[in-house]
Amino acid sequence: MTTTGQPANRLWDAGLLTKVVLAFALLLSAFPIYYMFIMATRTNDDALDVPPPFLPGGHLGENVRRLLSTEDAYFITGLVNSAIVATTVTVSVVLISTLAGFAFAKLRFRGSKILLGLILVTMMVPLQQMGIVPLYELMVTLGWTGQLQAVILPFLVNGFGVFMMTQYASQAVPDELVEAARVDGASTLGIYRKVVLPALRPGMAVLALLVFMQTWNEFMWPLIVLLPDNPVVQTSIAALNQAHGTDYVMLFTGTAASVLPLFVVFVLFGRQIVGGLMEGAVKA
Predict the structure, then answer these.
(1) Euclidean distance between the first and final Cα of the chain, in Å?
(2) CA–CA separation, 90 vs 265, rounded Å?
(3) Under 8 Å CB-to-CB from 15, ≥6 apart: which residues?
(4) Number of helices and strands (H, E) in the chain?
(5) Taking the domains of the chain in order of start, what are their residue ranges?
(6) What is the mean predicted confidence (pLDDT) over 53-67?
(7) Under a CB-based contact definition with an 8 Å cutoff, are residues 279 and 271 in contact?
(8) Which residues form the ABC transmembrane type-1 domain (predicted)?
(9) For residue 187, how many C-alpha atoms fall within 13 Å in the half-sphere facing its CB?
(10) What is the pLDDT of residues 140-182, one digit of tens each?
(11) Which residue in 36, 166, 8 sits closest to 101, CA to CA?
């Protein structure tokens, strides 16, 4: 109860103006996605209409068949490659970030603050843009140009992920719990596996979504290091643009198809992701 005799949760009731503003923001955010899927069901003549159409058409199947049959785009190959790359990078980043986060937050060792500071520096400097030339030379030396490992290897570790999980572990895992497990005879790896990982799951879900989305949408480095016949989905869409010029419907269809896996990931793990965001907000 509050001092005025009203329930505490009444303090958080949204007013009419707040609801209107949120509804307007939701509409602005969702409309481009909605319009993208609408145009994926239309023709190029519909795309040039003024005003544009806002209801679905009947050409989705035809547009999808055209998309998949475009030889220069290799769209199916791009989807499969993006799934492999994004999944591999996400698993690696989450695993390494949780291990490093646990070490920085709960273990005491010489140079830990210096190492964490160096990780923060990597977040401040655009290493990907500055290191493209030497990184490409390294891929040429290894003979990896045109292969998926050239896209996977540079992203297996993420400075932001390490910093995020360090902060999360410092709040989500009490020191007393770690000490109690150590007194009971648990090894450091056992403490990580049985004590730390269960507490970090919400944060891991959020980090996994962020890394998966970032890797799935990566364009510049795959464009440089991969061959046209072995693309990821974003470079496949770029090739689709070159192949069809002003075929707007084909571009909308390809973009809509590339967005669907992200929706699937969010639907499957949405509860854990939202729970992790809310738990992080409460701890903060």
Answers:
(1) 24
(2) 12
(3) none
(4) 15, 0
(5) 17-66, 70-283
(6) 87
(7) no
(8) 79-269
(9) 3
(10) 999 999 899 999 999 999 999 999 999 999 888 888 888 888 8
(11) 166
Give the residue carrying structure tokens 């020191």.
175
Q: What's at 126, amino acid-wise?
A: P
Residue tagged 């770690």 (tokens) = 178
Locus of tokens 């403490």? 191
Q: Give 104-122 pLDDT, tens digit per residue.
A: 988 888 888 899 898 888 8
Reading the block at residue 250, the tokens are 């084909």
Structure tokens at 227: 């061959």
What does the alpha-carbon distance between residue 249 and residue 254 come to, in Å, rounded to a whole number?
9
Closest CA to 73 of 238, 183, 219: 238
Give me 124's structure tokens.
């401040």
**Residue 232 has which token pair?**
């990821």
Pick from 18, 20, 78, 75: which is nearest to 243 by CA?
75
Q: Which CATH superfamily is domain 70-283 in?
A: MetI-like (1.10.3720.10)
* Whole-angstrom distance, CA of residue 67 vs CA of residue 157: 34
